[in-house]
């Protein structure tokens, strides 16, 4: 048997740390270049007028403000019912909640959270014992659980 003094390399060995760093850069660098190019394009004044430069942050803030303008139906219903609770007793407001859910079945999955918010608000307005007296099985007794959560 003949012995060699040169080190043998393993087959399938993929390289050392330099090769791993190179592979990582090969994967990350294109992503970084695309993102920086996208941000650069959003900074360019494509209209020709100097006052209408739109930055990426302007686009983000415009998207946020458009969300504020177009609110979800369940948020509008909750706010409307909370305002109504200031003027009318919780029994009337719970009836209106039930009517809204009956009229728009898509609101049914938000009914419990709206009823709990009404229960918490009723405790602030009427106190726990009186607010509890209005509890009824609207949205699986979520109003009562809102009263309980606000009271404890």
> What portion of the residues fall into strands of 2 or more residues?
under 5%
SSE sequence, one letter per element: HHHHHHH
Which segments are poorly predicted (pLDDT under 50) over 5 or more consecutive residues? none
Q: Could you say which structural class the secondary elements and strand pairing correspond to? A: mainly alpha
Question: What's the gyration radius in Å?
Answer: 31 Å
Mean of all residue-level pLDDT scores: 76
Number of strands: 0
User: Level of helix content?
Assistant: 55-70%
Instruction: Please count the helical segments.
Output: 7
Form type: elongated
Largest β-sheet summary = none
Write down the oligomeric state: single chain
Cα(first) to Cα(last) distance is: 85 Å
Written overview of the protein:
With 152 residues, the chain is mostly helical. It contains seven helices and no strands. The chain has helices at residues 17-43, 56-69, 73-87, 90-103, 111-126, 128-133, 142-151. α3 (73-87) runs antiparallel to α4. The radius of gyration is 31 Å and the shape is elongated. The model has no long low-confidence stretch (mean pLDDT 76).
């Amino acid at each position: 048997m003949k012995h060699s003094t040169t080190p043998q390399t393993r087959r399938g060995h993929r390289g050392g740390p330099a090769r791993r760093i190179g592979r990582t850069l090969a994967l990350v660098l294109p992503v970084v270049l695309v993102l920086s190019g996208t941000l650069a394009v959003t900074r360019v004044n494509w209209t020709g007028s100097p006052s209408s430069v739109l930055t990426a942050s302007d686009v983000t803030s415009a998207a946020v403000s458009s969300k504020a303008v177009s609110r979800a139906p369940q948020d509008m219903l909750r706010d409307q019912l909370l305002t109504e609770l200031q003027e009318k007793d919780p029994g009337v407001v719970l009836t209106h909640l039930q009517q809204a859910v009956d009229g728009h079945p898509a609101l049914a999955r938000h009914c419990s959270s709206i009823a709990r918010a009404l229960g918490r608000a009723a405790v602030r307005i009427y106190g726990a014992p009186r607010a509890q007296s209005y509890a009824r099985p609207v949205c699986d007794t979520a109003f009562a659980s809102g009263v309980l959560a606000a009271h404890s």
